Amino acid sequence: MALFYSVTQLEELAGNDARALWRRILRASAEESGISEEQSLAQMNAALDAMIAADAAYDPEQRSRSRLVGGDAEKLRRYVESGESICGPFVGRVLCGAIRMGECNACMHRIVAAPTAGACGVLPAVLLPYAAEHGTPREELVAALYIAAGYGMVVAARASISGAEAGCQAEIGTASAMTAAALVYLRGGSARQMSDALAIALKNMMGLVCDPVAGLVEVPCVKRNAAGAMNALCAAELAMAGISSRIPADEVIDAMRAVGALMSPLLRETGRGGVAASPTAERFRNDFFGN
Question: Which domains, ranges and CATH numbers included, belong to the chain?
Fold first, then answer.
């Protein structure tokens, strides 16, 4: 049996005190892992440190081995800092962070799979700029990571976080949903609002296929991290405004699982469908790997 199998379970765990939900997730997770709460906290702090270090280690001159990825986060940074961006500085920093982390992953930096390596950019891209913008204490960021982890556990147990099993909806979609729930927590939202944010984010990403060009976690994966981060902001804003998901979160997760099962294997990380099957992608694959 999974540690958390339903969003309803998390809401019941929160009771009337959503602010305490993260600590209840911490306690249950530590017990399940057979470690102390202090050890669990140390592990989560280490994950946060790794996110911060990966973001700081970005090298705009570095390129992935395929040469498909690298340097785009720097282009975006310059554009945002020019004052000409459409969305403004905060959203610009979120987008930059997502591309930066995705490029770090493709260039073999140490990243945090949240919940997967291919979706590693979404959670830090939102939480780190948010913390800088609002002066969020470190302990609150750690608490938000537990919230993200708790909701992510439900998706993993009830559906999947594997692109090979359920498409990119299970990777970027789950990362976006986890981030939306964590952001609602940081904004002081209720457990129900966290659940609504998760459901809205997942619905927006439902059906997203996994179609990596040449089988590499680079194109379109890196840019999808930026889309996932933006989707998380959207879902959190709607939930905080009091807009609920008409379909309960658990039912949304079940629907995602069903959609994943309906996907052709060509659309589940094989690199043989979607944009991976485009003429340009096929030419690149043949040039890079040989016929």
Answer: 7-289 (1.10.4100)
